[in-house]
Design a protein that fits this description.
Blueprint (H helix, E strand, L loop, with lengths): L5 H7 L15 E9 L9 E11 L3 E4 L2 E8 L3 E10 L22 E12 L2 E10 L7 E8 L2 E3 L2 E12 L1 H8 L3 H7 L9 E13 L4 E11 L14 E12 L1
Antiparallel strand pairs: 1-2, 1-13, 2-3, 3-4, 4-5, 5-6, 6-7, 7-8, 8-10, 9-10, 10-11, 11-12, 12-13
């Protein structure tokens, strides 16, 4: 799954329509507020700040919670190597279920990623492969998606459909229950296989002036396969909503 605020960066590719992916766009800074529910059982929904940082000099980029360098960049495609913060986490004290409160914490981590993006006459195709480099989850994530922006005056709307594949170690870390946790909590032992998560998101940006823009959107994930049998989960569909403002220098 893409980080929620990534759609903001997709929007920033098109300040004047279909332009270069890796061109040196103006630096953009902003802040927003997001809300999301959780797949975990009796786990509180949360509000959180969304920082927006978009810097790209054609060789190096900072893209919200991602950063990297370009190995290839031309008028319509790019290949980059970088790192991305994976915000997935589970905090037992945030669960209202007494059994989940007895589980271990699951922590966020840092992914090393390879990303490929191409702009065509039919929209944007993106793909990435990422691996946990901190040894937290041992995750391997593969993502592919398609975005078709609509531009009308100062308004850009970017609907995206995509699918994310996660390896069994990722699922076991974030959704599994070990034998020790099972004995302590009363939840049954569970060790998940790999899975795919289809998702849909739609983001919008409206330019108020040459420098100031508002943005917002919604992202919906659907957990599928073996991972949905986890005793930690009671919600296979999760949603996130966000909105904010940015300034282009």
């Amino acid at each position: 799954m893409k980080n929620l605020s990534c759609i903001i960066s997709i929007l920033s590719m098109f300040p004047l329509g279909y332009t270069q992916i890796a061109s040196a766009d103006p630096t953009s800074l902003g802040i927003g507020l997001g809300w999301s529910n959780s797949p975990y059982k009796s786990y509180r929904s949360s509000f959180y700040p969304i920082p927006h940082i978009d810097y790209d000099n054609g060789s190096f980029f900072i893209d919200d919670l991602s950063t990297g360098i370009y190995a290839l960049s031309d008028d319509n495609q790019s290949l980059s190597f970088g790192a991305r913060y994976l915000a997935n986490e589970f905090k037992p004290h945030d669960a209202n279920n007494h059994m989940l409160k007895k589980l271990n914490s699951r922590h966020s981590t840092l992914l090393a990623e390879v990303n490929y993006d191409i702009i065509t006459d039919w929209g944007i195709f993106s793909s990435s492969i990422g691996a946990d480099v901190l040894g937290k989850s041992h995750s391997i994530l593969v993502n592919t998606d398609y975005t078709l922006p609509y531009i009308q005056g100062n308004l850009i709307v970017a609907p995206t459909i995509g699918i994310n594949w996660a390896n069994s170690k990722h699922n076991a870390y974030y959704y599994g229950v070990s034998h020790k946790e099972s004995s302590r909590s009363g939840l049954r032992y569970f060790n998940s296989n790999s899975s795919v998560t289809p998702y849909f998101e739609i983001g919008a940006q409206y330019s108020l002036t040459d420098n100031i823009a508002t943005f917002g959107g919604i992202h919906i994930d659907e957990l599928t396969g073996d991972v949905t049998n986890s005793p930690m989960i009671d919600n296979n569909v999760t949603a996130s909503i966000y909105a904010g403002v940015s300034y282009n220098f």
